[in-house]
């Protein structure tokens, strides 16, 4: 990595850490407020409706499997992209006999045929490729096996270019030990200013390319792409954890509501009235007995005086009314 790339990477890392910290703080605050609303009862109506909808769903397990499957597919997809971009970045200067090396075309010099390049039309050369195409290149063959109109990868001032050989100068007095190659892009009017030596060549293109994929590869190879990949993986991992926390809070609230509802229904039910049968036991009633009237007799009073008082009392007794029945 160059100094500029190191600087960009450090800058992106700082921004990533700041954004990640802000995202974690925001997510934690949102989850905390959501749990508070659920536990306070503000979301009871919504929870009941969601519970009713879940009861109507017959394939809840199947939907869970689909959710986990989608998350797994996304993880594998991003992991595959990251692996491919890393492989391309690490092997773009390494060549083997029959194993292709992939590289991204960052120039449009081979995107189309220029009208003044008659050799393209005369020889029916239609193996052009657009900008940001992902091309497969192979190990460069022997110097004297290269022929006219081959497309090769060569290096100039630490920059890799992909152009077509439009002229070959065989060994002569000026360069007796090597050939000089003149290269030119199909979309360019004039050939390169300086000839290219075989020692500058890195690979040869045989017509295999994937258009427009290189833009994603370049982004993933950049520090911003690496940090974005980490952020995406963090989001994929954190989302199910947050959903489980909220679901547990909802289930606990629904269980509490069910218990309160059961207690209310039990309180409304009237208590059964127990009627006790009273058995009346006849109580014997004592008949009145005529008792002789005993007049008090004063001690020391003569009997004759007592009898005289009784006679006077009977005489003074009022006579009963004859009209009364």
Describe it for me?
By secondary structure, this protein is of the alpha+beta class. It folds into 2 domains: 3-91 and 222-258, no CATH class; 101-213, Umud Fragment, subunit A (Ribbon). Helix content is 48%, strand content 13%. The chain contains 7 helices and 6 strands; from the N terminus they run αααβαβββββααα. It has helices at residues 3-40, 44-56, 60-91, 118-122, 214-221, 223-268, 303-315, and strands at 101-104, 134-139, 151-156, 159-169, 180-184, 201-210. Strands 1-2-6-3-4-5 form a 6-stranded antiparallel beta sheet. β3 and β4 form a beta hairpin. The longest helix has 46 residues, at 223-268. The N and C termini lie far apart (144 Å). Mean pLDDT is 78; it is low at 296-301.
Q: Can you describe this structure in just a few lines?
A:
By secondary structure, the chain is an alpha+beta fold. It has helices spanning 3-40, 44-56, 60-91, 118-122, 214-221, 223-268, 303-315, and strands spanning 101-104, 134-139, 151-156, 159-169, 180-184, 201-210. The chain folds into 2 domains: 3-91 and 222-258, no CATH class; 101-213, Umud Fragment, subunit A (Ribbon), CATH 2.10.109.
């Amino acid at each position: 990595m160059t100094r500029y790339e190191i600087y960009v990477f450090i800058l992106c890392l700082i921004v990533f850490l700041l954004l990640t910290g802000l995202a974690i703080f925001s997510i934690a605050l949102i989850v905390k407020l959501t749990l508070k609303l659920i536990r306070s009862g503000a979301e009871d109506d919504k929870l009941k409706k969601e519970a009713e909808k879940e009861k109507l769903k017959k394939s809840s397990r199947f939907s869970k499997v689909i959710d986990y499957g989608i998350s797994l597919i996304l993880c594998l997809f991003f992991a595959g992209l990251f692996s491919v971009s890393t492989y391309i970045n690490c092997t773009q200067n390494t060549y083997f006999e029959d194993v292709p090396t992939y590289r991204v075309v960052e120039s449009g010099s081979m995107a189309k045929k220029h009208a003044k390049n008659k050799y393209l039309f005369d020889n029916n050369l239609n193996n052009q490729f657009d900008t940001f195409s992902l091309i497969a290149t192979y190990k460069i063959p022997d110097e004297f096996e290269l022929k006219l109109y081959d497309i090769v990868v060569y290096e100039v001032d630490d920059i890799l270019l992909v152009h077509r050989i439009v002229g070959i100068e065989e060994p002569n007095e000026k360069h007796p030990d090597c050939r000089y190659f003149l290269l030119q892009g199909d979309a360019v009017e004039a050939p390169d200013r300086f000839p290219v030596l075989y020692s500058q060549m890195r690979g040869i293109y045989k017509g295999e390319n994937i258009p427009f994929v290189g833009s994603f590869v370049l982004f993933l190879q950049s520090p911003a792409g690496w940090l974005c990949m980490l952020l995406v993986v963090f989001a994929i991992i954190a989302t199910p954890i947050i959903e489980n926390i909220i679901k547990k809070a909802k289930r606990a609230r629904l269980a509490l509501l069910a218990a309160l509802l059961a207690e209310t229904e039990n309180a409304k039910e009237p208590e059964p009235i127990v009627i006790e049968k009273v058995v009346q036991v006849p109580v014997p009633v004592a008949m009145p007995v005529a008792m002789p009237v005993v007049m008090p007799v004063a001690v020391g009073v003569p009997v004759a005086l007592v009898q005289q008082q009784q006679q006077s009392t009977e005489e003074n007794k009022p006579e009963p009314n004859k009209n009364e029945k």
